[in-house]
Structures are given as C-alpha cells and as structure tokens.
Amino acid sequence: MKIQYPYCTDRHGFTLVELLVVMVIVGLLVALVGPKVFPKLGKGKQAAARAQLELLSQTLDHFRLDVGRYPTTQEGLTALVTNPGGAENWEGPYLKKALPNDPWGKPYQYQSPGSHGEFDLYSYGRDGTPGGEGEDKDVTNWE
Predict the structure, then answer these.
(1) What is the separation of C-alpha 89 from the centre of its chain, rounded to a whole number of angstroms?
(2) 50: which residues sit within 8 A by CB, 6+ positions away?
(3) 59-77, pLDDT tens digit by residue?
(4) Considering just the CA atoms, what is the radius of gyration of the chain in Å?
(5) What is the 3-state secondary structure of 91-106?
(6) Are 101 and 108 within 8 A, CB to CB?
(7) Which end of the chain is more exposed for a tag (fewer CB within 10 A), N or C?
C-alpha cells in the first residue's frame, strides 16, 4: 500500500522557480562577498613577490661571499643555478629549485651594478610594465 502525502508527487527534481531562487541567493552572496575578497588576492601576490625578492637578495649575497662579486647583468640570476663560466670559488647551485618567476608568471628583472645599490632586483607587477598602482605596482628590492 502506497501512502500519499499532501503536496507530494512522484516527480523528482527542482522546479524552475526553486532554481531561480537559489541562483538569486548565490548571486547576492557573490555580490556582497566578492568585492571584499578579490582585492586581498592582489595584496597577497605583492607580499609573495616581496618575500621572493628578499630570498633572492640573500642568495645573491651568498653568491658574492663565495665569488667575490655579484653576477653581472649579462650573467643574470641564472648564475645562481649554473656556473656562469669564469666564476672561481662558485659553490652553487645557490637555489634548491629552479629560478622562480614572480607571482604573475614573469621573470624577475636583475641589473648589476644597479641604479639603487650594488644590484637592482625587481618585478613589474601584474601588468609587466614599469610603474603602476595597486597590483600593477612594481615590487623592488630597494623600497
């Protein structure tokens, strides 16, 4: 014997009205929470770039202690991974893993001698061009 409950049918699934109500609720949640969460993602990438610059700067200092100089601009940061050729007392590789890109997937920029110190190490930020605001702002080792 089958028991019939009021307002119940044998059909399974959701009605169009139920789906629309759920979609409106999800849309409202995204509209309220999204603007508060998305700006923090950019700040996190900026902080990650600063941390990587600091670690690369320390690694460059270690290279200088062994070799007696910083890598030239032509040798670049790859001198931390492979011997640049004529570098005596090279004790590398100085990085345990491959040379990292910045959080936006672009290579870090390196110049030695630098305009702001013995070397300049920087990322152009999300847009990949000098200058910018917010997540597009350059991240440097001299600021």
Answers:
(1) 33
(2) 139
(3) 999 999 999 999 999 999 9
(4) 27
(5) CCCCCCCCCCECCCCC
(6) yes
(7) N
pLDDT above 70 (res 49): yes
Distance, C-alpha 97 to centroid of its chain: 16
- Minimal CA–CA distance to 62: which of 99, 97, 85, 89? 89
The tokens for 51 are: 């941390």
The reply to whether the predicted model has a pTM over 0.85 is: no
**Mode of pairing for the β-strands spanning 139-140 and 120-123:** antiparallel
> Which of 130, 90, 92 lies closest to 109, judged by CA?
130
Region 107-125 average pLDDT = 91
pLDDT for 123 beyond 90 = yes
